[in-house]
Design a protein that fits this description.
Blueprint lengths: L7 H28 L1 H25 L23 H6 L4 H11 L4 H8 L3 H15 L4 H10 L9
């Protein structure tokens, strides 16, 4: 404190000038705000409407449905279909089971297949169950798909 005593008067003038300068800046700001208050309010309202318009435009122009691209294998018809005999023997599929599989691929029901092959409905169900087991599938559509991939059925059938 002893070192500041000679500068006490100078420090008090500096503090007074700083306070007066802050007061002058505050009055200038207040005058600016009071003198142009309508323009400032209009500018704030315009800014709010601008932001609202941008938000609304994004909501309106945003697509409501999301596009999903599904890739599916397209089979081209083969002119000369060759039955894959090795796969047929390897999976131990009989000629009658192959007939049932072919009729399944044509979209016939079990009853229609039974009528066409002149056998009972239970026989067709047995052939279907054995086919599903041999092709390692659970449904007719899966069996047809696997049979086409293994070249047991022509790709254009069904």
């Amino acid at each position: 404190m002893l070192k500041l005593k000679p500068y006490k008067e100078l420090i008090s003038y500096a503090v007074a000038m700083a306070v007066l300068l802050l007061l002058l800046r505050w009055l200038e700001f207040r005058f600016l705000v009071l003198g142009h208050q309508y323009e400032i309010y209009i500018g704030i309202i315009a800014l709010l409407f601008l932001l609202f318009g941008i938000w609304l435009a994004n909501k309106i122009t945003k697509p409501k449905v999301e596009t999903i691209v599904i890739e599916k294998e397209i089979r081209l018809p083969i002119q000369n279909f060759i039955l894959n005999e090795t796969e047929l023997h390897q999976r131990n599929i009989s000629k009658r089971e192959l007939e049932v599989l072919t009729l399944m691929a044509k979209g016939l029901s079990n009853q229609e297949i039974a009528e066409q092959l002149f056998v009972s409905l239970n026989t067709i169900k047995t052939h279907s169950a054995k086919l599903f087991e041999k092709l390692e599938v659970k449904r007719r559509t899966q069996a047809i798909e696997i049979a086409k991939k293994l070249q047991l059925l022509p790709p254009t059938l069904g």
